[in-house]
Amino acid sequence: MDIYWHWLVVIYLFLGGLGAGAYLTSFAAEMGWLGENSSLRRVGYYIGGPIVGIGTLLLVFDLGQGFYKPWLLWRLVTNLNSVMTWGTIILAVFIAVGMLKGFLTFINRPVPSVVTWSGVVLAIATAGYTGFLISVIGAIPFWDSAIIPVIFFISALSTGLSITVLLSSIIEKASSENKGREDLTHIILIAAELVAVVAFVGIMASGVNGLVAQKSAILLINGKYALYFWGIFIGLGLIFPLAVYAVQYLRHRATEATVAVGGNADGQMEGPRQKQSLLTMITDFSVLMGGFALRALVIFAALPIWDGIKIG
């Protein structure tokens, strides 16, 4: 079986969603949706544009002739009927706006609201485009589903939140004051992604999109990619983080309840907090690993319609 898209495309799809999700995470923190005085208000802005820029550069590498004949890249922005053209424009503008927002945030200068909100719209478009790009390729029945952009968008938000949490403790050197809110957000995103993935794989395995798409689904469920699908993506990328965040959220709520009735948790939580911090880092990294595995599996398990399988 030949693989028609390779690792550079997988990395690009991952970084595109990751950078967009990081920007949206800091925006949500800035708006107060992740709690007051969130430590996540800045880091996502720092890394959003650069991460997408790196991913886009890798895409140019994959195009091959873009480096030998760079004038050919002009065609990417001239055909407005092409999904690739619109994606190129969205990526380019988001990179510019994201870097401007990140730079102004870094030097503590006021950022015009039009810059911030333009970045939000472009980040949403970028996160959605990474899934929409492959869903419109009719020659690959496994990708021919409106669920793929949804899965990729949710994964972008989830991985963006995780990378922002991981880096904020290093760059901002501040612990989160809204751990419960962040854990709840993680729970919602991972649960939504899990439901969407189950629905997608179930639909493909049922044969609704034909035997080629069904064979791709079987490669994930009990075929050559089953270990990666169940072990890395579902197990380590979704189930493990979901369980950890759920336990941490319940413990946080229990601590809040104790304080509310007059208890004092100070002096007793220092050790558990240190251990929980390390566990949180491991869990956030697990989310990132799952997000990368998702895109690799969707790309590599997809069989083209001319794979030799008889339809009908």
The average pLDDT is: 85
Distance between the termini: 21 Å
Largest sheet: none
Q: Label the CATH architecture.
A: Up-down Bundle
CATH class: Mainly Alpha
Query: Could you say which overall geometry the principal axes of the C-alpha atoms support?
Result: globular
Overall structural domain count: 1
Strand segment count: 0
Task: Please identify the structural class as seen in this structure.
Answer: mainly alpha
CATH H-level superfamily title: Formate dehydrogenase/DMSO reductase domain
Fraction of residues in H or I helices: over 70%
Radius of gyration: 21 Å
Kindly estimate the percentage of residues that lie in beta strands according to DSSP: under 5%
Poorly predicted residue ranges: 265-275, 308-312
Number of helices: 10
Please name the CATH topology.
Answer: Formate dehydrogenase/DMSO reductase fold
Order of helices and strands: HHHHHHHHHH
